[in-house]
Predict the structure.
Amino acid sequence: MPGYVTEITGEPGSGKTVLCTQFCVDCTLPKCAGGVDGAAIFVDAEGSFDSLVAVRMAGALARHCRREGRQNTVPASFDAEHVLRNILVVRTMDALDLDAAVRNFVTDEIRQRAHNYAANTRNESKDIRPIRLVVLDGMASAFRSMEGSYRRRTEILVGLSNYLKDLAACHNVAVVVCNHLTSMVRTVASSENGCELVKVPALGCVWAHSSTTRIMLNRPGRIYSKIFYRPVVALRSHSNVTDLQESDLCLPEVRTCTLEKSIHRPPGMAHFVITDVGVRDV
């Protein structure tokens, strides 16, 4: 959502990084094809960005635009190379490095590209696009590996969260932060021990109120299917998952995307799969 901070959380392997990579690729889609015709910055704080995945996604997006019969509307220069040229990747090593990258490189790049794009508005051959999306992947890892006192880490986290909100609002860019899950003991009167172990987003209450939207990714049931639409049909036609035949159990894996909180939309859930060419719905 432009102008706001969105948090994507989930267990390891749930698809957070791949989904954010798909966001960056889709951000370059021209407005005539329903996109925002922009560029994206991917800040990688844990080294999980895969350039080969981005290349396959970019190629699939370019082929999709041609296959859908938009040759007359989509510019001829829109290809995989154009998509990749408008995705900037920044690798950070710790929380201080992450904070400096956001305050300096990301901010300067947003301002410079916005100025250059406005100055070349009438030049149809321009290849400079304004930044529409900023992704921070592995933010929790950066702060967990940071040396120093808890107070110092909290001060940096509070300052960075406030800066991200201001950055999104002032420049009308969408900020997406990938967060991990952690375990927390919660008091429950109905439990035998009086408490239970639950999984909650990391970074605590300091970060919990910074994002206006939270999306939870999950891999329920580990159900597989040859065709994207088969999992939903299979689940509806079988009362028990064990009734599925071996021929029904193959890639890709169906995952769930749950909107837990948002000031724009009510809570909801959707299904998606991760294929060789990107994220697809079911």
